[in-house]
Design brief:
By secondary structure, this protein is of the alpha+beta class. About 15% of the residues lie in helices and about 20% in strands. The longest helix is centred in the middle third of the chain and has 7 residues, at about 30-35.
Length: about 55
């Protein structure tokens, strides 16, 4: 089973690990990763094996 996005209320599959200096690292969907990765210091890295989740 594919892990789900860690953002509250989101049930999309996780495809990106977000490393955020202001909070815990978490696995999120592509849509949430787009927004979160715009913040200073945040690094977004694709999760291995989740390539089918990318548009």
């Amino acid at each position: 089973m594919t892990e789900r996005c860690a953002e509250a209320g989101c049930d999309r599959p996780a495809a990106v690990r977000v490393h955020d200096p202001r909070g815990p690292d978490r696995d999120v969907c592509v849509a949430h990763a787009r927004g979160l990765s715009q913040r200073d210091g945040v690094v977004a890295a694709p999760i291995e094996g989740a390539g089918d989740q990318w548009p």
